[in-house]
Amino acid sequence: MLPSVDARELAGKRAIVTGGTRGIGAAIVGRLLRAGATVVATARGAPSKESTALFIPADLSTAAGIETVALQVNKRLGGVDIIVSSVGGSSAPSGGFAVVTDEHWQRALDLNLLAAVRLDRALLPGMLERGSGVIVHISSIQRRLPLFEATLAYAAAKAALTTYSKGLSKEVGPKGIRVNSVAPGWTETDGSLQLTRRLAARREIDEEAARKITMESLGGIPIGRPARPEEVAELVAFLVSERAASIHGSEFVIDGGTVPAV
Questions:
Q1: What is the pTM of this model?
Q2: How far apart are CA 84 and CA 32, in angstroms?
């Protein structure tokens, strides 16, 4: 059951969510809409028919894609008050460092780091002119707990994103822009469910056993389950609201206790 929401909390706010048609991004779009914001979702794939967000199709891993999004956002909304960079992922093969080519590394950096950097560079000037705005970058616990088998480049790119977020916060905080990052652990999106089902089929086990194997590969999740996209979205909605007006330059881990260190 979704928690109750103040449907006017973000009224009048204009938001953009990258990767906003699937998984965590789609959940964030839905949560911001429920709080009254006008929301633009952007991704390569279209949103569900139920979504009332504006949609701009684009390949966010390219400079041209970001330019298209920025032009459309400024044309249709006159700028934004909230930027949530949620797009990300890994397409590198398994097999460790030796099989990850320059192309895999560049793809990981383009999607998980430079998409956010380019979007901020395109839309931040408008925020600075108005002297207000909020940016949230979706990182990952892999920046602190990297997995080498297939997501090493992804983990390194997310580590760079968190460092970038901190540096950006120091620059634009005094000018009225808040910047924070959110680092989810394993989150049970449709994509992760498909991976679980493939693991179950490959090992000829049921889905619950496959989930346990995945959790064990992370060193365990103390609460006993992955996060849900809606839970990550709830944290983001708090961070972009006035309830978080003094929270700036921070990273928030939402992983059920997976990272075993302070």
A1: 0.94
A2: 10
